[in-house]
Automatic annotation (TrEMBL):
Keywords: DNA-binding, Phosphoprotein, Transcription, Transcription regulation. Gene3D superfamilies: 3.40.50.2300. This is DNA-binding response regulator, NarL/FixJ family, contains REC and HTH domains. Residues 143-213 form the HTH luxR-type domain.
Amino acid sequence: MRVVIAEDSVLLREGVQRLLADEGIETVAAVEDGDGLLDAVTEHKPDLCVVDVRMPPTFTDEGLRAAIECRRRYPGLPVLVLSQYVEERYAVELLAGGASGVGYLLKERVADVKEFVDAVRRVADGGTSIDHEVITQLMVRSRRSPVDSLTPREREVLGLMAQGLSNTAIAASLVVSDGAVEKHVGNIFAKLGLEPSNSEHRRVRAVLAYLDS
């Protein structure tokens, strides 16, 4: 796997690079701003971009906007965003811009090496990995949507789906049967107006409907 890292903090940039190297993942470019990210993606055509949200010159949302632009120029380019905060507007825009290969994690997750590497591989393979805290904050800010019709358990299942877990993994996490999870997933699809299906595309559409609510 070939990765481009965009992070203005030298310590974190080098730390992520070494962590990935220990897992046999090559960093082909490590840059410190949005323009550098766009140039590196154009030059290297990486398998994944790991991008900080706040970078020079204003340290607001340059990284996230650059990630969205990368996805616009190169549809399907896997992008894993790292942030100390939940940037609501651009988070939804990034996630809604494509049905695969997107992730949004809070930086504290990097400390959990296994969780972070799992997210890197999942997103690079076209899956999703959305931090539970991101889901929670966006959910709290949402008002009057089809998501409101979900039961507490269905919301819990959808939150775990957003983190990229399979039905089997969700069942293990909630200590219920696979059949129970499949029933919840079917109910979620129905309430969100999505045809029931276990395909990745339908799962991601459900998550996007959740975030866009």
